[in-house]
Design goal:
Shape: globular
Largest sheet: 9 strands, mixed
Number of domains: 2
Radius of gyration: 23 Å
Length: 433
């Protein structure tokens, strides 16, 4: 039973919000150093809260937030609300415009073993620690993570569509995506959102480090608070929720690059590939991503002088010895990491996550360019993963191989901020929430 609450958000003042596009920023884990330096030049950019500068970055964010509140840079909405968030986008090679529909709310930061929020990948401790420190010092959720619920009746979309007739923000972000935000403050409609979600499990699509930061902070506060009730602000986390049944939910593939692997030989790799895969030469390497499209256990393998399509021989799958359920074993990425990266390239599975020889790139053209320029010894091109695969793995209780999914587009930071400060989080007497 996933518990959500509306947010009484902090947002930029009406004056500043006239130029809201100049104040938004990419999420902390995708913003490049070049983007950061440019964004830091605007003293009111949201980057100062999400990726604060300096040796004492979290303390700096705390002081900046305090000053912004005091100076009226940020103002709180008068009422609680559900913030409807739409993202309009196109994909390479298509003129179709998609619209990913969802809403932003507070959600309880459930422990993983409660199985109300399900993860599909594991986190890196360093990145989690960074997020906890900023959360603890600022008492603010700066950007929403992305969660998925399943509702084939599309109960909430009609309310979201109606709300979006009167958007409060509309911008074009760094991805070329058109972002729009609107606000629902009708208490009866908000209760419908709460009721719809309470019977659903949530799959965490993006933002594992930020969510785990909230979870670990909640656990710490529960230990320190002898009067813990479960209703305190530290129990909650800001999340953007979208429906898995929507046609406009897109998961893009992440390809693998091999670099600086000792004693690498494309001839030897080809000999070993033949043991597990059927191999077909590809004359035009630029088309290899299209050639493998939709074919199970099929990959494009790029070398500097040639390219091939490989497809696992079906009878070979039973040799996969990793102790995973069938939902995980049968994934394209599990096949790739076991047969190509471990068995053929010799990088053991337990070492792959931190291997200096393995890199990830979502851009097919970049992969091809790097191989042709000898910046990589080899590229492994993969298909995207389906939403059904994500659901099946999550419901099995296991996680997917690293960098399995890239839910596109990324949400942006700066439209709204959600406090967990107890004095601010506590509902006023006039509120029904």
């Amino acid at each position: 039973m996933a518990e959500i609450k509306p947010i009484r958000a902090w947002r930029y003042s009406a004056d500043l919000a006239k130029n809201i596009e100049e104040l938004t920023s990419p999420l902390f884990d995708v913003v490049s150093q070049k983007q950061r330096e440019k964004l830091y030049q605007n003293q009111y950019s949201s980057i100062h809260l999400s990726v604060p500068k300096g040796e004492n970055a979290a303390d700096n964010a705390k002081e900046i937030l305090k000053q912004w509140k005091s100076d009226g840079i940020l103002e709180r909405d008068a009422l609680y609300g559900i913030y409807v968030y739409y993202q309009y986008f196109t994909l390479a090679g298509s003129q179709k415009e998609y619209c990913r529909k969802g809403f932003i709310c507070n959600i309880k930061a459930y422990d993983w073993n409660e199985k109300e929020i399900l993860r599909h990948e594991n986190t890196m401790p360093g990145a989690v620690n960074d997020r906890i420190e900023i959360l603890e010092k600022t008492q603010l959720n700066v950007s929403p993570t992305h969660g998925l619920y399943t509702d084939d009746s599309f109960e909430l979309e009609k309310y979201m569509d109606e709300s979006m007739l009167n958007p409060i923000y509309e911008t074009e972000d760094y991805q070329g995506v058109r972002d729009m935000l609107s606000l629902i403050q009708d208490a009866e409609i908000i209760k419908k959102f709460i009721k719809t979600i309470e019977s659903r499990k949530i799959i965490l699509a993006d933002g594992h480090h930020r969510y785990e930061g909230s979870l670990l902070y909640r656990q710490k506060m529960m230990r320190e608070n002898p009067n813990h009730t479960g209703n305190e602000g530290y129990n909650y986390h800001m999340m953007f929720l979208t429906n898995t049944e929507a046609d406009d939910l897109r998961i893009l593939p992440t390809h693998r690059l091999i670099k600086d692997l000792p004693n690498f030989s494309s001839e030897e790799v080809m000999e070993k590939l033949d043991k597990y895969f059927t191999i077909k030469p590809v004359e035009d390497a630029h088309s290899i991503n299209e050639i493998i499209l939709g074919k199970k256990w099929a990959f494009g393998v790029l070398f500097k002088d040639f390219a091939v399509k490989v497809r696992l021989k079906p009878e070979v799958l039973e040799q996969l010895s990793w102790q995973f359920p069938e939902e995980v074993k049968s994934l394209d990425l599990t096949v790739m990491h076991y047969f190509i990266i471990e068995k053929i390239l010799g990088i053991p599975g337990k070492e792959q996550r931190a291997s200096p020889f393995l890199e990830f790139d979502r851009n097919f053209s970049d992969c091809l360019t790097k191989v042709l320029a000898s910046d990589a010894q080899m590229a492994i091109i993969t298909n995207d993963i389906s939403m059904e695969d994500v659901k099946n793995v999550c419901y099995s209780g296991f996680t997917m191989p690293q960098k399995s999914t890239y839910f596109y587009p990324k949400v942006i930071c700066g439209y709204l901020f959600s406090t967990i400060n107890e004095d601010e989080f506590r509902s006023p007497p006039y509120s029904c929430f």
